[in-house]
User: Fold these one by one.
Assistant:
Number 1:
Amino acid sequence: ADQIRVAIAGYGNLGRGVESAVAQNPDMQLVGVFSRRDPASVTLLDSNVPVYPMADIEQYQNEVDVMILCGGSKTDLPEQGPYLAQFFNTVDSFDTHAKVNEHHAALDEPARKSGKVALLSVGWDPGMFSLNRMFGETILPEGETYTFWGKGLSQGHSDAVRRVSGVKKGVQYTLPSEEAIARVRNGEQPELSTREKHVRECFVVLEDGADEEAVRNAIVTMPDYFEPFDTTVNFIDEATFAAEHSAMPHGGFVIRSGETGTQSKQTMEYSLALGSNPEFTASVLVAYARAVHKMASSGDVGAKTVFDVPPGLLSPKSPAQLRKDLL
Ligand code: NDP
């Protein structure tokens, strides 16, 4: 069978992840990368495909089955998504939870007009976590759903640490509180405050002559960012920082705790421990790009989310093969 032809719009962390993920899927083929930057300044990992100017993207309508959007959620996707849905089947990882319906509406109109499928908010959260929250509350209607994040690198909180005077380098990890998770797994259905669900851990390299206690105090008392949490600050040297704090790990848990029938306690749990957040997110995008291709080929149109995609469509296997191997 012919390979599914995919292209990447926007080449950052996620774009690189998609490049690697496509290479792991023999039924798919990367045909190009589009960037707003000068193509000559964009170096791909190891594919031999052209980098094109984003401004020319319309010209490639007939050469791409699915465009995978790898721009940022804040300003890129709200603009690029509706524009590209006029020409391509698309998948994006839009993660601004509060604006999901707005983004859905903005994509639905152009996608219906062009007869394309525009799949939004794919990844792990939103994405795989969303599906598992839905399974939980649907299967166990009487219960509580909990989402815990971490251990994960938080970009915004790391930036806040780096702005503290005396900090040369800094990162911040969000960790789920072990105690809170234990209570949830135990079926207690506790009401948990923000402070109780997560703790924050910082690793800092000090500027020469900076004072540890002053830096620690400035961090843990920072309103909104750190004050509402139990925050620990660890001081390390530059070599340790480079060796142990250059990756982008993330992950977390979705737990549904409920009761059925004769007060039986039932717990459903889905967990992710990700060595690289963008590479995993990209792997989810690529699997869903396959589903989008199948949906579009069978005549489906409009904006979709993970809730609208039959799970078997993610797989390169036929329905019969899936039944035989995995049912
Ligand atoms: P990046 O900042 O790495 O990339 C975003 C865009 O910035 C790229 O598309 C690229 O566009 C541009 N860019 C990248 N590198 C450079 C550079 N050196 N100089 C100038 N511009 C550059 O973001 P990520 O790839 O890490 O994340 C993208 C989005 O993915 C996030 O905003 C987040 O919302 C979402 N996400 C969703 C998840 C989920 O589970 N749903 C999980 C993780 C992320 P161009 O090539 O056109 O210049």
Number 2:
Amino acid sequence: PRSSSSFYERYHSLEDIYDWINRTIQDSPNTANLILIGSSYEKRPLYALKLSLNNRPNKKAMWIDCGIHAREWIAPAFCLWFVRHALLHYGKNQDITNILDNMDVYILPVMNPDGYLYTWTTDRMWRKNRSISNSSICVGADLNRNFDANWCTVGASHDPCSEIYCGEFPESEPESQAVADFLRSHKDSVQLYFSIHSYSQMLLFPYSCTLDEAENHKDLLEMAKEAVEKIQRYYRNNYKYGAGARTIYLAPGGSDDWAYNLGIKYSFTFELQDRGQYGFLLPPFRISKACNEALTAVKSIALRVIEKTQ
Ligand code: PAY
Ligand code: ZN
């Protein structure tokens, strides 16, 4: 029954998520470490968790960020879901065990805390961050248009009032800069990048900022296909997959393309449930299936990356 749904089958306020982060690192001191990667425009901490097994420093790593867009509540819910799965099922579930034996996992549960808070207090449909512009009364930049990948070309806007406002310059926003700085300083280990969004049910990979094909397009396509087929097989739900620009639309300045160009050759933007019935307002009773679908795909791709980079 819905009334007894677990913590992970509900959406949580920003404060609750900060508490959860604290609890998690306290409860699993040998596996989960706290990393402060920066702070938001309104000076909230950007905490990432590093899942890494004691005395087993891994050379490889994967990165997952959630909640770059404020209204996509299922995204932070997925980051929490992933961490719970990893901590609970390591040593029991073969896939997550294999992954953690070979990779450290960095998880940023809420990349846009100011926007997320705003969706809880004021405007449920807010997308951008909450930075104030000196040229306009409109607030916020689209963090997924603020990275240095064909920045502010077709598919983004210089207008601060636009939902796809690219910001003043690449990495003008502290949230995107913090993620970019972290990845730049960890690019020798991070080989797999995920950015979690909703909605649409799509597994996207570079490029979104151009119609050109990525150099390892075939590889990415194959990995995405396999992941989507597993979702279909286990959960009877359909996801589209392909290069972003040709599967959804041109979206320059995205984190996935930027990470790819940095050298993280396995880079994905994952649009979780649904396909528009509830859209951003995915009800809590759908969290479990949405997250399990995404978990299946993320694990499938991570295992392939481990094979390919051995
Ligand atoms: O890399 O192709 C990409 C990013 C595409 C997303 C974007 O940043 O625009 C797609 C949208 C998103 O998740 O933000 C899709 C949703 C439904 C929207 O707000 O349009
Ligand atoms: Zn989004």
Number 3:
Amino acid sequence: MARPVVAIVGRPNVGKSTLFNALAGERISIVKDTPGVTRDRIYADVSWLNYDFTMIDTGGIEPDSKDIILSQMREQAQIAIDTADVIIFLVDVKQGLQDSDSKVADMLRRSHKPVILVVNKVDSFERDMADVYEFYNLGIGDPVPVSASSRLGFGDMLDKVVEYFPEQSGEEEEDDTPKIAVIGKPNVGKSSLINKLCGEERVIVSDIAGTTRDAVDTRVRYNHKDYIFIDTAGLRRKSKIKEDLERYSIVRAVASVEKADVVIIMIDATEGVTEQDAKIAGIAHERGKGIIICVNKWDAIEKNDKTMKEHETKIRQILSFMPYASILFISVKSGQRLGKIYETIDAVIENNSMRIATGVLNEIVSEAVALQQPPTDKGKRLKIFYTTQVAVKPPTFVIFVNEKYLMHFSYVRYLENRIRDAFGFEGTSLKFIIRERK
Ligand code: GDP
Ligand code: GDP
């Protein structure tokens, strides 16, 4: 089930960070951590009642001149329109209604995205409510009063937000067409790849506000099978500001990874694998998606018979948390190995949802245990009673043991490798849960 994505948009100082932090609690993922740059939160997991969603931060705004604020707010709103299922438009009861609020509200209204108008800094309902009504003038619905710093009004606000989430069961589940997200740094060749795979004319490029969510996904038929490429319109949007561009590519990655079964991580062969690639790849890994690494622009580098191996070694080293990822060396420009991509997508999807019968699984685990004794601590040895697969996407295993603390990370790794040797699972992460059974 895809996690819905919620974005917060608003002027500087209305309380976006405060709201974000209050909702996210401890679960904030700081993606960007460049020395000298403020640690920037990009996204966080939020749980509210039975709902889980991903909250993205569309970026800070430098409170410079008025013109810059408005243009940056527009960029921020555009990111939200491209990526979010629901947008929280945050305004400030103390600053009151501002001209730029109205302009951004117009833009959000035209997008036809669900927008919840939230009025912050209503620290006292008795005192401040009269000032809240002014925001009806924005024409985007009933203002919801909150106080981010005192955590007031969150229940009503989140009730409204989750109202717009797709039904958790029902039609969406039945569409099992593979969904593919293409992520990577700016200029790595994402839109070129999509154009090539989908056929130039089928990519719906839409800079027109008012296009619905569905229009940004592109359905393609290849070899009598359907595939959906996610967020293809967003790929075309290029920000002018370099920092924004980088951030945008990460925010986009978070949002599209949520909806994907398979994630194609593109790396530029001419630049090699970078830290930013690792951050983007980490998002896909964390979410347990099928992973294909495509090293693009293979045409553009000098090669000998060792080049491919050298690239692979470097990639495996920097992306050491995903040794299972499939790697393809491609050139969108020359078309080299593009046919392999669909084949790999099919294989990775199959592996990501593969189920292993408990009997064979335990045979493999017993063999592994016989070959390499489990760890001990102060004379006490780890005993593995039983292993069973409890979920797919990603394949998730529960290992029942005598004492949890005896299970070392390295031994889990060892068992994972034996399971991979036996069953494959290329392109997907595996999850292990250790439980005690006394
Ligand atoms: P951002 O620029 O939109 O991210 O705004 P911040 O979250 O940094 O908040 C700007 C200022 O407003 C800070 O000084 C916050 O402490 C303050 N603030 C945030 N929420 C509230 C609130 O609910 N009530 C009051 N009185 N102040 C708040
Ligand atoms: P995006 O920002 O990731 O969507 O990247 P684009 O698809 O816009 O491509 C960025 C630039 O890289 C463009 O100038 C492309 O023509 C170029 N490019 C894309 N794929 C290849 C490739 O396989 N080889 C070479 N030499 N250039 C490529």
Number 4:
Amino acid sequence: YDMFVLAFVERLFRASYKKDDIVLGKKLGEGAFGVVYKVSVDKPSAKKRGGDLVLKKATEYGAVEIWMNERVRRACASSCAEYLYGFLENSSKKGSEYWLLWRFEGEATLYDLMQSREFPYNVETLILGEVQDLPKGIERENRIIQTVMRQLLFALDGLHSTGIVHRDIKPQNIIFSEGSKTFKIIDLGAAADLRVGINYIPNEFLLDPRYAAPEQYIMSTQTPSAPSAPVATALSPVLRQLNLPDRFDIYSTGLMFLQMAFPGLRTDSNLIQFNRQLKRCDYDLVAWRKSAEPRASPELRKGFELLDLDGGIGWELLTSMVRYKARQRISAKGALAHPYFDKEGLLALSVMQ
Ligand code: ADP
Ligand code: MG
């Protein structure tokens, strides 16, 4: 109860925005449930901190997204893009829409960065703020990928510790924050708050099949008792232990790790093909490796080489994330404590010179 009062008071004193304050800029994205724009604010009080913002005009899932962003703002702000304000806008022609505002964190998502031939060196430049004059090779690439993975798992652990499962973790929903020089999570429209059961049963159309764990439908059909309406009936911790819904995000994060390590799996079509092969191997990565490695292209071989560094510690982490059974997947916190992260990451590179 106190938490609700505090949250209400905090929101009263926080900068608020209305439709007329917002000047639309470039369109950044358009999905089935909303449109996203870069915007500026035409309001003297907002000018003090300055900078561009991001506006999402959301339809169906706007209320859920506002709820999740308010929770994140109070409980694990550094995990996600900085959320500023959300409101219901009734005056629009299409009926009512939810308008949500965030700080514009930066130009590039992990997806954009991975599409470049320079990846992962383009990320190294962003994080260190300078170009490193060092020989390129898998060891250096491994350190960069390790740094990215640590940042992703740190952000994810923040969400999961708060009781939020994202369910749409993919490179398109990871933004590089130029301010903090770290990757942050965005797009909480498909997220679930396990403490109160908000949006616990996902709309299947919200899930991206390219990154979804195999239990995607199990979650929506085999837990019929889980509340779907925003009512404060806390989901039983016992049920949560059995289902481990946070491991859904771990699987998706494992696929991103895979795409970072294997240049050949960074395109959509190759990822879809990989998913088909993995399914044929009953989601057993070791079996997939046995079938794929003998006829591997040099690009594929490079991924195995990278993950085999330091006694195969990267491969060990990957295989503990991408597993058929949610229960057997490592947690975000567990992954952060994995020996893959024992070596110093990217920052050690600048000291090496
Ligand atoms: P959707 O996927 O539902 O269209 P997202 O919330 O993922 O909406 O936003 C769409 C795109 O807008 C993102 O992929 C990203 O390129 C950009 N974007 C979203 N939020 C931010 C932000 N805070 N800062 C910079 N760019 C953002
Ligand atoms: Mg998105």
